Structures are given as C-alpha cells and as structure tokens.
Amino acid sequence: MHTLIKSALSQAKVWKLIPHNPADDVKGPKKARKKMATYDFAQTVEMLELARGQRVFAPAMLAVLCGMRRGEIAALRWGAVDLEAAQLSVVQSAEQTKAGVRYKEPKSGQGRTVALSATLVAELKALRLQQAQDYLRIGKRVADDDFVAARPDGSPLLLHSIGQEWVRFLGRHRHLPRIRFHDLHHAHATHLLASGVHPKVASERLGHSKVGITLDLYSHVLPNMQAGAAAVVDEALQAALNKRK
User: Fold this and answer.
1) What pLDDT does residue 220 have?
2) What's the rounded Cα separation, in Å, for the pair 160 and 77?
3) Average pLDDT over residues 90-112
4) β-pair type (81-82, 112-115)
5) CATH fold group of domain 41-218
6) Tell me, what DSSP letter sits at residue 157?
7) CA angle 140-141-146, nearest 5°?
8) What is the residue extent of each domain of the chain?
9) Does the pLDDT at position 108 exceed 70?
C-alpha cells in the first residue's frame, strides 16, 4: 500500500497537482518474510514416485526438477522441448483472465533455456509416449503445438486445475509436508544451491531477472555454501602445501 500511494503521489507531482510527495518522507515498512517451506532430496524423490501415473505428475516434475512456475508449465508445448539436445525453452506463461486463458511472456519478461537431466529426458519421453497412446484412442496425433501438461483429450491443464490437483494429491498422502505447488519451484532452487551450483547459473535456470533476487530469496542456503566453499579452498591449499613439501 505504501508503494502504491507513493507511486500515485509521485505521478501527481509530475502533473503539478501537488508541490511535494509526502510519501517521500515516510519510510516504507519492511516486508515480513515467512520461513520458506520446501522438500529436501528424499522428500522430492518420494513425492515424485507417489505422483507417478497421476495428472499432477508432469507439473510437479517440471516444477521441482526444472524450477518452472505454474504458469510456465501450463503454457509449455512439445515444440519447445528438444529431447535430443536435452533442453526446453520457456517462452510463454499462462494467465487466467475473465475472458479465458491468455499466454504472455514469462515473469522475467524474457524467455530462457533450461537444460534437462538424463532422468528428466527419460520421463518426458515416457510422458510423450503415453500421450500418443491416449490420443490414438480419440484419433489424434501428438503435435508440436500440443501441451506437455495436458488432459487425456489434449486440452491444457488450467492454472487453478494444477493447484487443485496438487491439493488433492497431498490429501491422499498426508505424511508429506503440506506445501504450496509454487514451493516446488523453491525446492529446485534450494537443491541447486545446496549442491554447489553457482548462484548465477541457478538464477538463469529459475528465470530471475537478476542474480541478487536469487541470493536474497535463498539466503538461508548460503551458510552451508560458504562452509563448503571454505572446505574446498582449504583442500586446495593443503594440496599445494603438500606438493611444495
């Protein structure tokens, strides 16, 4: 609210309606940040195994293994997935409006390429084969314009449908921590940084416009990264020292 009021009064000043923006004299409140809830590696593996064969599997897999957001998953088509090169392109994001679904640029304002692991390539190949079998029953072939996360008839999963499927999935498996679907995006980021992936690489993979956003959002992972970095440097120094001796 402070930001909105300050922006409105700033525009009023530009239009000469007021001589001074009083909001400039007011310090904006700090946003309270809740502790981020994600899945660790073991929980991620268990979640994916339990979700296999269900409608929520493809969206959950793309979120937790690629860091894709729900809107990006809903807009992903097979034409943007190159299984031979093991990569996919995030070029659109779905947005639910009163008039229906609108496809727009991703949140960062620009597309990005995401490398796929061998495991994910195998899963996507299996998913495409399953879709081909499902579509064959209704006399349809899988095409590049078809959606990756889709219903058996080829229609795309809507944004709210993905969220609802996730809630129902957690309801069937109550031993799993109850986190939001978007927290799978955070889980991927945490996994990257905890595994020693450079923050710049993680930032590009997650679609952040600046690496500072990544560092700020996932600062809770940095202490472990620093400890690991210190150990690596110490090991290199000890190796050089032993070689000198």
Assistant:
1) 73
2) 18
3) 85
4) unpaired
5) hpI Integrase; Chain A (1.10.443)
6) P
7) 100
8) 1-32, 41-218
9) no
For 26, residues 6+ apart whose C-beta sits below 8 A from its C-beta are 2, 6
Taking all residues of the chain, what is their mean pLDDT, rounded to a whole number?
89
CB atoms inside a 10 Å sphere around CB 170: 19
DSSP string, 74-101: HH-BGGGEETTTTEEEE--EEEEETTEE
Measure the CA–CA gap between 120 and 60, rounded to whole angstroms. Answer: 12
Name the pLDDT band for 88 (thresholds 50, 70, 90): very high
Residue type, 57: F
- Report strand pairing: 93-97 vs 100-104: antiparallel
Q: Cα separation of 55 and 169, whole Å?
A: 9
Amino acid identity at 124: L
Burial 194-227 (b: 16+ CB within 10 A, else e): eeeeebeebbbbbbbeeeeebbebbeebeeebee
Token couple for 64: 């937790």
Task: Give the separation between CA 159 and CA 101, rounded to whole angstroms.
Answer: 9
Quote the CA–CA distance of 156 and 91 in Å, as a whole number: 16
pLDDT tens-digit profile of 228-241?
Answer: 666 767 788 888 88
Decide if pLDDT at 223 tops 70: no
Euclidean distance between CA atoms 22 and 26, whole angstroms: 7
* Nearest residue to 108 (alpha-carbon basis) of 62, 71, 81: 71
The first and second tokens of residue 214, run together, are: 């990544």
**Does residue 152 register a pLDDT over 90?**
no
Residue 55 CA: distances (Å) to CA of 38, 50, 127, 156: 21, 12, 11, 11
Segment 101-112 shows an average pLDDT of: 82
